[in-house]
Design goal:
single chain, 921 residues, Rossmann fold, 9-stranded antiparallel beta sheet, 21% strand, lipid binding, magnesium ion binding
């Protein structure tokens, strides 16, 4: 008879215990074990890291009720695999770790990777031992498997020295297959539980992951249907009773826990997942059903403890629960109140799903994934916000189809779980939705899955951080000292997948995400979708919106109207004038002047004006920016995109920090839309940020100098601008483009704390939409135009980028939606009335009107100073400005200016901590 090595004896013993798959990493001295396992017909999946490998074994134990097996090399390998050992022990899932060890005779001599592994594992396992001989291996394997699966499931460890693995024996008898005993609850305790349930007015069943592990779905569904009681699944208890069951109260979780007078815990432990019982009513009576006696009454007093195998005990309870009941659980006021509460929460959730702002929120991304998942999908959820928010989004109709970090909340379990789940659920698709931080723990297991030919779909929810990240601008601002939660923005994780032979997709919009999901679901290989979402926390409101609201509260509700007197001194040809400013102090609005005769600037019939060259230049630059041909290069990044009620896309320039390109489609002819958008006097009708406007001076050729006063966007920001505007017909459309003529030569008022935001470029290009584009965009009717709008700000000072980004992604789309609605009700015309009538009065006559009037009698530009005795040209001059303020105002501004960061930090911290504390409620 041929002899057997220790490795072969172990392989046969594992086969005897029903092992189908072993997860491991080979090396000295366990290579022979992996080879022997494969020779016995057991599948071996080789991993890249022992932690992921041990998590896979742990998940296999949960899914199958059979101990998952992990194979690790000696020393560091066993230490790494200890993560899965503890994970299994805390979650009560059966697992067996087999670790190699140095030769027995070399112990204590400093052998290769020598370590006291049995002693290390003993505190964290139910069984930890080393066979003294090869002949003891089968018995030790059976004992390890029985210990792992019996009673309260957990982990076992078997230590195999190299001499035992490589040694030989003539014959070994196999031990019997493990068969854990199961038991029923005390009938007297069951009768007491029935009495409590019959007398309950607001009962609640809490279905834990222990019910899913115990395969008690049939019995629990029968109990729910018979008793008609509301139930609440814990995250991994979802699907034991289908989530679409009318008695599922997940959407009213907090109200259900606090309002119940009798609570039945079905394989659910009263730990952090149930807030340690602190949200239960103080008078609630608790009935706990669990296989573990030591779990009974932890953190809460029990009215009844039912110890036993969960399916058997639930069947006992159902059989004994014959009524009559004090109140009909299915028609009680408690249930009606929970249903109403849940309906409101569901409505709020649906609104979150419909948020089309870009970057996407968690909810919008999850909604796109959810609607495409097959009914039998296995969803692996890992991460902080990713896992927590996903719990409220994805529904399950089958048990053990949702895997997450569970009670121990380990990060790094995602890909190990997914590999184990796909190895078990061969006919179902496994989708892992993981946060970018969590993905980093086990990213190289993508290669493991590709090598094992497992058609996983991995969706990385990339918010560039742990909990929350930074966008590129914020990242560069804080590059020297980054927050501890920050990761590199927008890492290209999909390229890792491509590098190991899988398909990779980078998505930034819901449409791109949906398309990538559709393609991945049709593929028979591994796919990774790198889904870029909003970096800030997006539980309900993004932090930038919160900051903006705080700024508004502090500055624009608390600070009263400021009245000041501004004196502009005459400098080089500018006549001195005095005016009063009401509202926040703003910079002087100065036209540039030179000792030049009025006849230099002439009407269109007599030749060009002095700004003609500048107008031609900004027209050229606008066209290049509108068509991606920017002089300073760099692509545009989509910040937000709306498809309804009108298509609107806002893009940010990759190089210029405060430059935005907005493309939208309006239901009007180009001429009609242009007449509304390019007429500066009509701008306050639709622009959410514009306060007042005035045409200061017409220059001819459709060009003018305009005054624009903006609404407050920052407490110390100037809100007035003097722009040169250039209007021209271009091909089949119309162009309006403007630029600030103050530039850097106007005093910036830094001593006063005033921030300037000049217009380096601002305007619109309006063209007709072709039939093909109307079909592609789904635009009904023929009367549509396309508008490309550029807003390029040249800031002199500091305004938070989050405020600027908020304006670009919120205020711009709101204004342009108003434009489209207004145009939809306006009769369209193919002729631009604005171009036909603009500046019909000769400029020389208009200049005579200006010079013959005083500011007091006829103010041409409200709150501005006009050069009344000199002609405006392109040559700049300086100006000296003095602002007198009340003493109390000076102190108020100083206090607010320097106290603001502390106030904002404190308020933001309080609100964020509140959200994080209650996010599981």
């Amino acid at each position: 008879m041929a002899s057997l090595t220790g490795a072969q004896v172990l392989a046969k013993a594992l086969k005897q215990q029903g092992v189908q798959v072993v997860f491991g990493i080979v090396g000295i001295p366990v290579v022979e074990i992996a080879d022997a396992i494969q020779a016995e017909g057991i599948k071996f999946i080789g991993f890249r890291n022992e932690q992921s490998c041990s998590y896979a074994a742990s998940a296999w134990g949960y899914l199958t009720q059979q101990p998952g097996v992990c194979l690790a090399v000696s020393g560091p390998g066993v230490v790494h695999a200890l993560a899965g050992i503890v994970h299994s022990q805390v979650n009560t899932w059966p697992m067996v770790l087999i670790g190699g060890a140095c030769e027995t005779l070399l112990e204590g001599a400093g052998a290769f990777q020598e370590f006291r592994q049995v002693e290390m594992c003993r505190p964290y396992t139910k069984y930890s031992a080393r066979p003294a001989t090869i002949g003891l291996i089968p018995t030790m394997v059976e004992r390890a498997f029985t210990a792992a699966a019996a009673g309260r499931p957990g982990a076992s460890y078997i230590d195999l020295p190299a001499d035992i693995i490589q040694g030989q024996v003539a014959q070994v008898e196999n031990a019997p297959r493990f068969a854990p005993a199961v038991g029923m609850a005390d009938p007297a305790a069951v009768a007491r539980a029935v009495e409590l349930l019959a007398a309950a007015r607001s009962p609640l069943l809490v279905v834990g992951k222990g019910a899913a592990y115990a395969r008690a779905e049939e019995q629990i569904r029968a109990l729910v249907d018979k008793y008609q009681a509301p139930f609440l699944p814990t995250p991994m208890g979802k699907g034991v009773v289908p989530d679409d069951h009318p008695r599922n109260m997940s959407s009213a979780r907090s109200a259900a826990l606090s309002g119940a007078d009798v609570i039945v815990l079905l394989g659910a432990r009263v730990n952090w997942l149930l807030h340690f019982g602190r949200r239960f009513s103080p008078t609630a009576k608790l009935i706990q059903i669990d296989v573990c006696p030591e779990e009974m009454g932890v953190n809460v007093p029990l009215a009844v403890a039912l110890v036993g195998h969960l399916p058997l005990v639930v069947q006992q309870l159902t059989d004994a629960l014959a009524g009559p009941f004090m109140a009909d659980p299915g028609e009680s006021d408690f249930v009606r109140a929970l249903v109403a509460h849940g309906r409101k929460n569901a409505e709020l959730q649906n609104k979150r799903y419909l948020n089309d702002e870009l970057p996407m929120t968690y909810y919008r991304a999850f909604a796109e994934i959810k609607q495409r998942l097959p009914a039998d999908v296995v969803l692996v959820s890992e991460g902080a916000n990713t896992m927590d928010i996903a719990r409220t989004v994805f529904d399950f109709q089958l048990p053990r189809r949702r895997l997450d970090c569970a009670t121990f909340a380990n990060m790094g379990v995602g890909l190990g779980y997914a590999i184990a789940a796909q190895a078990y659920y061969v006919e179902s698709r496994v989708v892992a939705v993981v946060g970018d931080s969590a993905f980093g723990f086990s990213a190289m297991e993508l290669e493991t899955a590709v090598r094992a030919r497992l058609p996983l779909i991995v969706v990385v929810i990339n918010n560039s951080g742990i909990y929350f990240g930074l966008d590129r601008d914020q990242y560069e601002e804080r590059r020297d000292v980054l927050p501890s939660t920050a990761l590199t923005p927008e890492v290209r994780y999909e390229l890792i997948a491509e590098a190991v032979g899988a398909k990779g997709y980078l998505v930034k919009t819901p449409e791109e995400l949906g398309s990538a999901m559709d393609t991945a679901l049709k593929s028979d290989g591994l796919s990774l979708i790198n889904c870029l979402i909003r970096p800030g926390v997006s539980m309900q409101y993004p932090l930038d919106r919160l900051h903006y609201a705080i700024f508004q509260l502090l500055f624009f509700a608390l600070v009263p109207t400021i009245i000041a007197t501004t004196t502009v001194e005459r400098t080089t040809g500018i006549e001195q004038k005095h005016i009063e400013l009401k509202g926040q102090p703003s910079l002087p609005l100065l036209m540039q002047a030179k000792d030049t005769e009025p006849s230099v600037i002439q009407s269109p019939a007599n030749g060009p004006h002095a700004y003609m060259e500048k107008c031609a230049e900004i027209e050229r630059l606008f066209i290049k920016m509108a068509t991606n041909g920017t002089d300073d290069g760099g692509p545009w990044t989509v910040l937000t995109s709306l498809s309804k009620p009108y298509p609107i896309t806002v893009e940010g320039h990759a190089v210029k920090q405060f430059c935005f390109r907005i493309t939208f489609y309006a239901p009007a002819s180009p001429a009609t839309a242009f007449d509304l958008l390019a007429n500066v006097l009509r701008r306050p009708e639709w622009d959410e940020l514009t306060d007042t406007t005035e045409v200061v001076q017409g220059l001819g050729h459709g060009d003018s100098i305009n005054y624009v006063k903006m609404k407050a966007i920052w407490p110390t920001a100037a809100r007035d601008s003097l722009l040169i505007s250039h209007i021209v017909r271009r091909d089949e459309g119309f162009l309006n483009v403007g630029q600030s003529i103050e530039d850097n030569r106007v005093p910036e008022k830094q001593a006063e704390g005033i921030v300037r935001m000049e217009a380096a470029m601002a305007g619109q290009l309006v063209t007709k939409v072709s039939r093909d584009d109307r079909t592609r965009l789904g635009l009904e009717g023929e009367n549509w135009c396309k508008v490309v709008q550029i807003a390029d700000g040249d800031m002199k000072g500091w305004i938070p980028k989050s405020v600027i980004r908020f304006i670009a992604t919120q205020a711009f789309p709101k204004s342009l939606t108003k434009v489209c609605k207004q145009l939809a009700m306006t009769p369209s015309s193919n002729e631009s009335l604005l171009l036909r009538n603009l500046w019909a009065t000769p400029v020389s006559k208009r200049m005579e009107d200006l010079s013959s009037s005083s500011v007091d009698e006829k103010p041409v530009a409200p709150k501005a100073v006009i050069a009344s005795s000199r002609v405006a040209t392109a040559t700049p001059v300086g100006a000296v400005v003095h602002v007198r303020r009340a003493r109390w105002l000076v102190w108020a501004r100083l206090i607010l200016r320097y106290a603001t960061p502390a106030i904002i930090a404190a308020l933001t911290s309080l609100i964020f901590n509140f959200l994080m504390k209650h996010r599981r409620g």
